[in-house]
Amino acid sequence: MNPIKPNPGDRPVQERRTARVLLTDPEGRVLLFADSDPGVPGYRWWITPGGGTEPGESDAKAALRELHEETGLRLHPGKLHGPVATRSVWHGYTDKIVRQHETFFAATVPVFELDLSGHTDAERLTMTAHRWWSRDDLAATDEAIWPRNLVQLLDLSADPEHPAVLEESEESSVRVSAADPSGTPAPD
């Protein structure tokens, strides 16, 4: 378990580029994974499939690779739409701060049984559940959803010809700013 640093402002800062997939089923439900920070027991949030791009890899190839690694689904490149949106987001965790430059893609697939065998050791530790969420589920939940504006993002994904550039934001288990030295989870 990663201990909370005495001053959250002392955490190292990492920049990374990621590709994420808004994976929906024919009923419009979106697949999300429950993620967590081992340094903040009991706090979790839900995220779309996706992850870091490798050097020399296009965002679309990274999205397809990450989708396969995290779900077992081999999606034909022609079924991936987008990019539908981009954003920069700050993620504060107990052990680091990540400024993430995200590119979102979209795809609609039939519901399938996930194969989690491609998860990394870190994902096996922190990604504790998955489920298909309806828009009503998203609107009614008290759980943290990253990105917070996921419903808006799903609406934007209907027009992949005009990718949106979303505002820079923060989504953290421990605030990025040292202004809250308690190390308590950031509110939603």
- CATH class descriptor name: Alpha Beta
In CATH, what is the homologous superfamily?
Nucleoside Triphosphate Pyrophosphohydrolase
- Uncertain spans, ≥5 residues at pLDDT below 50? 179-185
Mean pLDDT: 90
Q: In whole angstroms, how far apart are the ends?
A: 23 Å
Helix content range: 10-25%
CATH topology: Nucleoside Triphosphate Pyrophosphohydrolase
Q: What structural class results from the helix and strand content?
A: alpha/beta
Globally, the shape reads: globular
Instruction: Characterize the largest beta sheet: strand count, sense, and whether it forms a barrel.
Output: 6 strands, mixed
Explain what this protein looks like in three dimensions:
By secondary structure, the chain is α/β, with parallel strands linked by helices. It has a single domain (8-170), classed as Nucleoside Triphosphate Pyrophosphohydrolase (Alpha-Beta Complex). The chain has four helices and ten strands. The chain has helices at 59-71, 121-126, 135-140, 150-156; strands spanning 13-24, 30-36, 44-47, 50-52, 81-92, 97-108, 129-133, 144-146, 164-165, 169-170. The strands form two sheets. Strands 1, 4, 5, 6, 9 and 10 form a six-stranded mixed β-sheet that branches. A four-stranded mixed β-sheet has the order 7-2-3-8. A hairpin with a 7-residue loop joins strand 2 (30-36) and strand 3 (44-47). The longest helix has 13 residues, at 59-71. It is globular and about 45 Å long. Residues 179-185 have low confidence and may be disordered. InterPro entries: Nudix_hydrolase (IPR020476), NUDIX_hydrolase-like_dom_sf (IPR015797), NUDIX_hydrolase_CS (IPR020084), NUDIX_hydrolase_dom (IPR000086). It comes from Nakamurella aerolata. Belongs to the Nudix hydrolase family. Keywords: Hydrolase, Magnesium.
